[in-house]
Write a structure and sequence with these properties.
The complex is a heterodimer of chains A (322) and B (286).
Chain A (H helix, E strand, L loop, with lengths): L1 H26 L6 H6 L5 H10 L6 H13 L13 H32 L3 H15 L2 H15 L16 H8 L2 H38 L2 H8 L4 H38 L5 H8 L5 H29 L6
Helix pairs in contact in A: 1-13, 5-6, 5-9, 5-11, 5-13, 6-9, 7-9, 7-11, 8-9, 9-11, 10-11, 11-12, 11-13, 12-13
Chain B lengths: L1 H5 L16 H19 L1 H4 L31 H37 L1 H16 L2 H12 L3 H28 L2 H8 L4 H37 L11 H7 L9 H31 L1
Helix pairs in contact in B: 2-4, 2-11, 4-5, 4-7, 4-9, 4-11, 5-7, 6-7, 7-9, 8-9, 9-10, 9-11, 10-11
The chains are: A mainly alpha (322), B mainly alpha (286).
């Protein structure tokens, strides 16, 4: 266990170093000038030069990268060129919205994935068909279709924002404090973006789980369990599901990691005030501290997610050793 | 599910999704793949109007005379823009998959055929790339390089090859243990000859199927990157970006943002169906 965690921590450090180094090295070749964006087009050359010096933009690349890394270890990811605030403050303000969106979307993906894999009736075939077609569509098209249908035509769901404060854990907070009106509004706002985000992962999870279930259902121990007269529910719950859930779980973990990357597009369409939206606004402004900050946070989330999933898999299946 | 219960599988062989063995249908679907490629190549000839210059009234709905798919906010012909966008998306996706296949395939082939420390070093390198969150790395690379189609292609290609290296390497290792390769080695064939004549041809079908099933993924990823502003710069026609720029029109003129999105969906659908059909054809021949 300790060996496993040490190896994963090593991998996490390697991943974060590669990601930040990529942003640092490549921004050298970028056409955008952050200082012009920062000071405005009418700034005097002297002011631009002074600003470049104060941002250490004229230092050699290696020394800037080293400076960034040592500052990052102290919890300082630099100052955003665009919002003029510390990147950590921006991330702290925007990350909770993204986390809540992804968590709700992940629950949807698990639920739809389970339906995809297990529902045997005609309704199951219907859901499978819808999801399979939906998974070939780009997420932004699903979002547009959802907005046209559920917002413009039916008027059931709102199309933008979170239905409350932009920052903080809106859903969690209203749930804990018992603010039911706020919770209802928050849930209503999260449904559409979360569904859009959940469709493709649900198909990936459902396909793997379905294949795995079919394989287990044909196994000898299942025939024995049936032969000794267990009810179908007991056969399924105790002998099939537990043996088949492993591949589904690892796919779910992989998809959770992907969802944190895919959230950028969905947040932009639904004006969801999360870090995806923050990233999308930082890119045209050549706001490299912000881009690097978001990359670091999402990369860390990706590695941690994969580690936790591997641990859960070992818990679910004692044959897997860490 | 009940079928599976009737025929118990005694050995833990992973049941593949049964490939559709309808050869005619499969040939048609693969033909569709080629047709889309032809349309993409000939987009400039097929497009009725210039995709960048206004060609008619503003915001004409689909089916308007002279403008089959309508026009956008400044009167550009949507059919022409979509065709040009299809060309950019489809050819880019093919290029990314081809680069991934060549780079990853070469690394996998060399690693699988040599074994030993070469295999070890190459596969550790591949694992390092596989541990990175691919989409995020692509976003970071393109964001740092600045928007532009070439930058996007570079960014995706960098994260796309390791997957192929793994698959080809596994295929080659499995082939290397087969009797015909052993026989060739006993007959005194050189390493290079075994690689060229006995390993490479055996790995080609797997490589082609993997690659064709992958085109749809790349089309979707490209569209997503272009949607958040990491594709071609305006006013060049590109499917994801065209949707993003027309978002404000969604509730008034839905077709302007929706049509490019539908084109992306069509491309990804054709890629998936065609890839599946190709797998069915190649599996059936074995």
């Amino acid at each position: 266990m300790i060996g496993f965690l040490t190896r994963r921590a090593g991998a996490a450090i390697a991943v974060l170093l590669v990601l930040t180094a990529a942003v640092f090295v490549l921004q050298q070749n970028s056409p955008g000038d952050p200082v012009k964006a920062y000071l405005g087009a009418n700034a005097s050359p002297a002011a631009v030069a002074a600003e470049r010096a104060s941002l250490h933009l004229d230092d050699p690349l290696a020394s800037r990268y080293w400076h960034y890394l040592t500052q990052a270890l102290r919890g300082d990811l630099g100052t955003s060129y665009r919002t003029h605030r510390p990147v950590t403050a921006d991330l702290g303000a925007f990350l909770p919205a993204t986390v809540e969106l992804v968590v709700v979307a992940f629950l949807f993906a698990l639920l739809l994935g389970a339906v995809f894999a297990m529902l045997r009736t005609i309704a199951g075939t219907f859901v499978r068909g819808i999801l399979l077609v939906g998974a070939t569509a780009p997420p932004f098209l699903l979002a547009l279709g959802g907005i046209i249908l559920f917002y413009a035509h039916l008027g059931w769901l709102p199309a933008t924002g979170r239905g409350g404060n932009d920052d903080g854990f809106l859903l969690t907070h209203s749930l804990v404090t018992g603010d039911w009106a706020q919770l209802g509004a928050g849930l209503q706002h999260v449904v559409l973006p979360a569904l859009v985000l959940a469709v493709a992962p649900a198909v990936s999870i459902g396909r793997i789980l379905r294949a795995s279930l079919q394989q287990t259902l044909g196994a000898d121990h299942v025939r024995t369990a049936r032969a000794k007269g267990l009810t179908e529910a007991a056969v399924f719950g105790r002998h099939v599901l537990r043996n088949s859930i492993g591949p589904g779980l690892s796919m779910a973990g992989l998809q959770l990691g992907f969802m944190f990357a895919g959230v950028v597009v969905v947040e932009q369409i639904f004006s969801w005030p999360g870090i995806g939206n923050y990233l999308a606004e930082s890119i045209p402004a050549a706001d490299y501290p912000a881009i690097a900050g978001v990359t670091v946070v999402l990369g860390a989330v990706y590695v941690v997610t994969n580690t936790v999933v591997d641990m859960i898999q070992a818990l679910a299946d004692p044959r897997i050793a860490l | 599910m009940s079928d599976a219960a009737v025929v118990p599988r005694r050995f833990g062989v992973r049941s593949r999704t049964p490939a559709v063995h309808n050869t005619t249908l499969n040939r048609l679907l693969v033909g569709l793949l080629l047709l889309v490629t032809l349309i993409a190549l000939a987009a400039r000839l097929l497009a009725p109007d210039d995709p960048i210059q206004p060609a008619g009234d503003f915001n004409l709905p689909p089916g308007s005379p002279g403008h089959l798919l309508g026009t956008d906010l400044i009167g550009r012909d949507l059919l022409s823009r979509t065709l040009w966008g299809i060309q950019a998306s489809w050819l880019s996706a093919l290029a990314v998959v081809l680069v991934g296949l060549l780079v990853g395939g070469l690394i996998g082939l060399v690693a699988g055929a040599s074994g030993g420390w070469v295999d070890n070093v190459l596969m550790r390198l591949t694992d390092l790339f596989l541990a990175l969150p691919g989409v995020l790395v692509a976003i970071a690379i393109v964001a740092a390089l600045g928007p532009g189609l070439v930058h996007t292609l570079i960014g995706i290609s960098i994260v796309w090859w390791p997957y192929y290296a793994r698959i080809i390497r596994g295929e080659v290792r499995a082939l290397a243990a087969r009797p015909h390769v052993e026989a060739a080695r006993l007959a005194g064939a050189s390493r290079g000859r075994i690689l060229r004549r006995h390993l490479l041809p055996g790995a080609v079908p797997t490589a082609i199927v993997t690659a064709s099933l992958d085109i749809g993924n790349v089309v979707l990823l490209l569209a997503g990157l272009s949607f958040i502003g990491l594709g071609q710069l305006a006013p060049a026609p590109e499917l994801g970006a065209d949707t993003a720029r027309a978002l404000t029109q969604l509730l008034a003129q839905w077709w302007v943002p929706v049509i490019p999105g539908l084109a992306v969906m069509l491309l990804s659908l054709v890629a998936n169906l065609g890839g599946d059909a190709l797998r069915g054809l190649l599996d059936g021949r074995r």
